[in-house]
Amino acid sequence: MSTQDLVMKALSTVIEPELHRDIVSLNMVRDLTVEDGVARFTIVLTTPACPLKEVFLERCNAAVLGHVPGVERLDIRWDAQVPTDRRIQGMLNAPMKSIIAISSGKGGVGKSTVATNLAVALVELGAKVGLIDADILNPNIPQMMGLGAGRPKVVNDKMQPIVAHGVEVMSTGFLISPDKPMIMRGPMLHSAIRQFFSDVAWSKLDYMIVDLPPGTGDAPLSLAQSFPLAGAIIVTQPQSVAVSDALRAAAMFDELKVPVLGVVENMAGDFFGTGGGEELAKQRGVPFLGRVPLAANVREGGDYGRPVVVFEADTPAGAAFAELAKQVAARVSVVMLQKSDVIPINIIG
Ligand SMILES: Nc1ncnc2c1ncn2[C@@H]1O[C@H](COP(=O)(O)OP(=O)(O)O)[C@@H](O)[C@H]1O
Ligand SMILES: [Mg+2]
After folding, report:
1. Can you give the C-alpha Rg of the chain in angstroms?
2. At 29, which CATH number?
3. Which secondary structure element, helix H or strand E, spans residue 337, and what is its range?
4. Is 91:227 a contact under the CB 8 Å cutoff?
5. 54 and 112: one domain?
6. 125 and 247 share a domain?
7. Residue 283: count of CB within 10 angstroms of its CB
8. Is 289:327 a contact under the CB 8 Å cutoff?
9. How far is the CA of 142 from the centre of ligand 2 (A)?
10. Are residues 229 and 128 in the same domain?
11. Residue (of 107, 11, 50, 79) closest to 327 by Cα position
């Protein structure tokens, strides 16, 4: 066996800590060369937001150094490719790799706030991200992203998304005047959202975040049903009444066989209490993704289009959203790779 093959063999004992498979069979090791005692290769992670680089580094060193004669040092480069859900291309003819729905049991719990900060935080971690405001009747995303009345340009029959804080955004808020009610019946709502996927000139996005309408009524149900979601995030306030509403949202996704990526507890603190979100996650057997405090800077960030995760990164709320983004990215990888046996998902590349 060549030294190169021996290094590869040694690396095939390194287990990806979240996917529980070895990094060679996951096709994460690329471009391996050995020269002058240095083994050089690239590790392709399943998300640019991977919190596990240090772990990989340690495990690869331990597997190779001292086990393969003639190799004294590893030189590892990093790359990232989010797994591609190929149903999206088939069903929507849209270039994104994965779709994540943000949902809640009722309005006012911070769904749009979480969607906004999550999208921006994922961009900061190096991902390409889009944000669809599917709360068609109450489009808050433009304001929260600091976007005014600008209308999307149409080029070659496709609307251009509007970019804010590095996120590509589409919302009915761009298309109607703010003082007029949106009057749309179910099927119209539905086709409007479908157009947001198919008739917008999105780039090749890693993550499309979709801010769903609240609750488990007609609109969120039909949306959750008809788009190939990697999974859904449930946002809840901490108090018990909010949690029982969120429970119904979680049950809806179970019914639809859409994986619940986890629960976010928003507005935690003295006023609404703490712990309800964690309790809900435990009850449903899904991960608790994080807790965001009730804080004036979060509300101001929403009102003025300055997401706290960027503009107040050093505050508890800013830090909470940044950590949330890492948790979500890791969960999407795990859920997609678990599903890759049943639905056509390209495992990395
Ligand atoms: N963690 C928080 N602390 C303080 N205010 C918040 C927080 N999260 C959301 N808000 C504010 O609460 C209101 C409702 O949030 P929003 O994201 O619009 O909820 P939803 O989309 O669920 O209806 C907004 O004014 C928002 O700025
Ligand atoms: Mg909202």
Report:
1. 21
2. 3.30.300.130
3. helix 316-339
4. yes
5. no
6. yes
7. 12
8. yes
9. 11
10. yes
11. 50
pLDDT at residue 349, as a whole number: 54
In testing the pocket of ligand 1, which one of 299, 300, 312, 315 has its CB within 8 Å of the most ligand atoms?
299
Residue 235 CA: nearest ligand 1 atom is 22
Give residue 114 CA to ligand 2 midpoint distance, Å. 9
Q: Looking at the structure, tell me whether residues 155 and 76 fall in a common domain.
A: no
112 Cα to the center of ligand 1, angstroms: 7
pLDDT by 10s per residue, the chain, length 349: 899 999 999 999 999 888 888 999 988 999 999 999 999 999 999 888 777 888 899 999 999 999 999 999 999 999 988 989 989 988 888 899 999 999 999 999 999 999 999 999 999 999 999 999 998 888 899 999 999 767 889 898 899 999 999 999 999 888 776 666 666 666 667 788 888 999 999 999 999 999 999 988 887 888 888 899 999 999 999 998 889 999 999 999 999 999 999 999 999 999 999 999 999 999 999 999 999 999 999 999 999 999 999 999 999 999 999 999 999 999 999 898 887 765 666 665 5
- Dist. CA 139 → ligand 2 center (Å): 7
Residue with the smallest CA separation from ligand 1 atom 8 is 110
Cβ atoms of 123 and 244 within 8 Å: the answer is no
Q: Whose CA is nearest to atom 12 of ligand 1?
A: 110
Q: Are residues 207 and 282 in the same domain?
A: yes
CA pseudo-torsion sign 45, 46, 51, 56: negative
| Ligand 1 contact, 291 CB (< 6 A) | no
Does residue 249 line the site of ligand 1, with CB under 6 A?
no
Do residues 113 and 53 both lie within one domain?
A: no
How many structural domains compose the chain? 2
pLDDT value of position 219: 79
Same domain for 153 and 71: no
Question: Residue 60's domain spans which residues?
Answer: 3-80
Which protein residue's CA is at the shortest distance from atom 5 of ligand 1? 299
Is the CB of 140 within 6 Å of ligand 1? yes
Whether the CB-CB separation of 44 and 79 falls below 8 Å is answered with: yes
How far apart are the C-alpha atoms of 165 and 4, rounded to whole Å?
Answer: 43
Shortest-distance Cα residue to atom 11 of ligand 1: 299
